[in-house]
Every structure is written in structure tokens, then in C-alpha cells.
Write a structure and sequence with these properties.
globular; 7-stranded parallel sheet; 5-stranded mixed sheet
């Protein structure tokens, strides 16, 4: 491919989006920032447009388009401005784009990620929720179009790096692999007395000890829902059974995940906890670029700690395993109910220790419903909508 690759960053104003742009700015000869999107952060998107001067920018919330246009008036940019979900899908699938960073948080990122996959792009997937909601559809779409899927989650990127070089996400997993081992920091409440979890505030929950992340994913880390989502995501990306995925607590967040082989060998990927590391890996793959993150200092004495998962403290992982084993619509319902629960917690409408209970309640309702399994986008979104309504209705009894 001649010239720099043209990069689209969906969710550019979020933490992953900004980290992606930080890495891209270090390699202007290899990467051109061609398109940017934000949901409704007019000022953030405008500043990024002034810095990177992309060909296109999309504000997904169409009610903010006039504000964006006014903000950039007189900025002397050639950037074309667009608004709405259809414009987001068009940006993700534009013929000129060669790489697409899918970093829109939650289910909102599903349609645009799918559009990029249909167009056969090289898609860097940071938003785990679409893979949980519609994993089979996304992997089938990638296989049909020839799209390349590269995981950005630090755990799944670590697994990708530890697998044989010929491995492709969505393809058959190489023989000889016994287990995938996902590490988890344990979040801010790993040692908090269980009796105190009921009084956890949103401000406490978003204060992760190792990672700098958005509010939703920080809460997911505190409840370990993120590890439940990652467990389902691993099964989708690598075609493994639920029984082949283990979760262990590793408080230092230096070993990001491991792959155990049948011969007894275990390969691990290590690095400082900074999302620019997996982002740089995916942008450069199969090569390697500088990420701006320092390597580990191996001359300094250090210890790595591992602990078994406390299922009483973190029931979310058990619930995720049950959803994965149930299959069908269950992973989609798991994700939707969790999004409602986290939003309610952040709004002060649900106790922290009842987030998992709300998800489990909605999954039980789904199991007794007549909802059919879904592999088409409209049907997947219909199940998502049902689960959100069910979760909202269940809030009153659990608040």
C-alpha cells in the first residue's frame, strides 16, 4: 500500500479515541487521520478537527450539528462536517478509509462497527459490547467481506499477541491450545469489606487503581462486569468454549493475559497499563511501532501476585459464564441489562451491590420469554431494546 494509511476514529473524543490519536500523531508518515466522530462533544471534536484536519467529521447527535458548524466557522479547515447515525455508518465504510478504530462505548457502536466490517476494512475493535451483542453476525460478516478484526481490549490484544502468528480473529483456532487466561486487576474494591459495597458511590467506583478509563467501563471494572463481557468476547474472537477461559486476579495489571498450550507452556504479554500499547500494536500489525509508552524496568525488583476470583464479591463473572453457556440471546441481554444498571448506578438510582442482581433478574426473564435467537441486525437490536425495557422495569424493585 503506497502512502500513509487513512484512519477513521469512531468515538474520537473518548479515552481510547484520544489514545489512538496520540499514537497516530507519532507516525505521520504511516497514518493519516482521515475521519473523526463524536457523539455530542462539540468542543472536543472541534479541537481534534483543528489539530488533525481530517477530511470528514461526524457528530452523531444531529441536534449538535449547528453548534459544531458554528464552532468551526472561520477555522479555515477543509473538513466536511456531517451529522447523524447514517453519516457515522458512511464514515466507517468510506472507500478511502483503510483502518477504522471502533471506540464508541456500548451498544451505540454496533451499527458503525458492522458497517466497517461489511466494507472489508481493517477494524480495530475497542468497544467490546458489539461483539457480545452480535458476535456471530460480526465474525460472519468479517469472514464474508475479508475484513481484518484486531482486538484493542488489553486482554484480548494480549491473547492475540500470544497466539501463533497465523491466527486470525474469527478463524479456526490453532490446535494445541488448552486455555485462555484473562487477568483482572480486581478494581478499586478488591479488598473492601463486602458489607461496605452497598454504600459505594459513583465517584469511588470510577477511581480505578491502575487504568485511566471512561466512567462506564470504570464501573464495569469495579463490578467485574467488564471481565464477564471479555469472557464472552474471547469466545467470539477465538472460538473457544466457556470451559477453556479462566479469569484470575492480578492486581498489578502488568501481565495482561496468557495463553496456555497443551504441552504445558504458557505465553504471556506484559507491559505497563496504558491503552496506547495495544493500540500501537494493532495500528502497526503485523509490524511494530513506538507507542509512547515506556517499557518495563526489569532491573527494578518486582513481584507479581495472582489470586483466585472471589465469586461472592464478583458474581458478574459467574453470570457471564451462564449467559455464554446459554447462548442465543443471553449474551445480548447480559450486555443491555448491564448498560441500564450502570447508568442507573451513576444516576444514583441503583446501589452498586445490586448491579449484578439486576442483570441476573433480566436474564431470568429472558430465559422464560419467547424471544427468538437473532442473527440479523434488526432482530439483535429488538432483543437489546426488550432487555433495556425489562431492566428499566426491574429497577424499582431493586433500587
Amino acid at each position: 500500500m503506497s502512502g500513509p494509511q487513512k484512519l477513521v476514529v469512531l468515538g474520537a473524543t473518548g479515552s481510547v479515541g484520544r489514545s489512538t490519536l496520540d499514537v497516530a500523531a507519532r507516525h505521520p508518515e504511516q497514518i493519516q487521520v482521515w475521519g473523526l466522530s463524536a457523539h455530542r462533544d462539540v468542543e472536543g471534536l472541534a479541537q481534534l478537527c483543528e489539530t488533525f484536519r481530517p477530511a470528514h467529521a461526524v457528530i452523531a447527535d444531529a441536534t449538535q450539528f449547528a453548534a459544531l458548524r458554528s464552532r468551526l466557522q472561520g477555522a479555515n479547515l477543509a473538513t466536511q462536517l456531517h451529522a447523524g447515525s447514517e453519516a457515522l455508518d458512511t464514515l466507517a465504510s468510506a472507500p478511502e478509509a483503510t483502518q477504522v478504530m471502533a471506540a464508541i462505548a456500548g451498544a451505540a457502536g454496533l451499527a458503525s462497527t458492522l458497517a466497517a466490517l461489511k466494507a472489508g476494512k481493517r477494524v480495530l475493535i475497542a468497544n467490546k459490547e458489539p461483539l457480545v451483542m452480535a458476535g456471530r453476525l460480526m465474525m460472519a460478516t468479517a469472514a464474508q467481506s475479508g475484513a481484518i478484526v484486531l482486538p484493542i481490549d488489553s486482554e484480548h490484544n494480549a491473547i492475540f499477541q500470544c497466539l501463533p502468528a497465523s491466527t486470525r480473529c474469527g478463524g479456526p483456532l490453532s490446535r494445541g491450545i488448552a486455555r485462555l487466561i484473562l487477568t483482572a486487576s480486581g478494581g478499586p474494591f478488591r479488598e473492601t469489606p463486602l458489607s461496605q459495597l452497598a454504600s459505594v458511590t459513583p465517584e469511588q467506583a470510577v477511581r480505578h487503581p491502575n487504568w485511566s478509563m471512561g466512567r462506564k467501563i470504570s464501573v464495569d471494572s469495579a463490578t467485574m462486569m467488564n471481565k464477564g463481557l471479555e469472557l464472552i468476547e474471547a469466545a467470539v474472537l477465538y472460538g473457544v468454549r466457556e470451559s477453556q477461559i479462566e479469569v484470575v486476579i492480578h492486581p498489578e495489571s502488568i501481565i495482561h493475559s496468557m495463553v496456555e498450550y497443551d504441552d504445558g507452556s504458557t505465553l504471556a504479554q506484559l507491559g505497563n497499563p496504558d491503552m496506547r500499547v495495544p493500540i500501537a500494536h494493532a495500528l502497526a500489525w503485523p509490524g511494530r511501532w513506538a507507542s509512547g509508552v515506556k517499557g518495563l524496568d526489569w532491573s527494578a525488583a518486582r513481584r507479581f501476585h495472582f489470586e483466585p476470583l472471589d465469586v461472592q464479591r464478583f458474581p458478574a463473572v459467574r453470570i457471564a459464564r451462564e449467559a455464554l453457556s446459554a447462548g442465543g440471546i443471553a449474551p445480548n441481554v447480559f450486555n443491555a441489562a448491564n448498560e441500564v444498571a450502570v447508568a442507573a448506578f451513576l444516576d444514583g438510582k441503583l446501589r452498586f451491590d445490586r448491579i449484578a442482581a439486576l442483570v441476573e433478574t433480566v436474564l431470568a426473564q429472558a430465559a422464560s420469554s419467547r424471544l427468538a435467537d437473532a442473527d440479523e441486525l434488526e432482530a439483535i437490536l429488538a432483543v437489546d431494546g426488550w432487555a433495556r425495557r425489562a431492566a428499566t422495569a426491574a429497577l424499582q424493585s431493586l433500587a
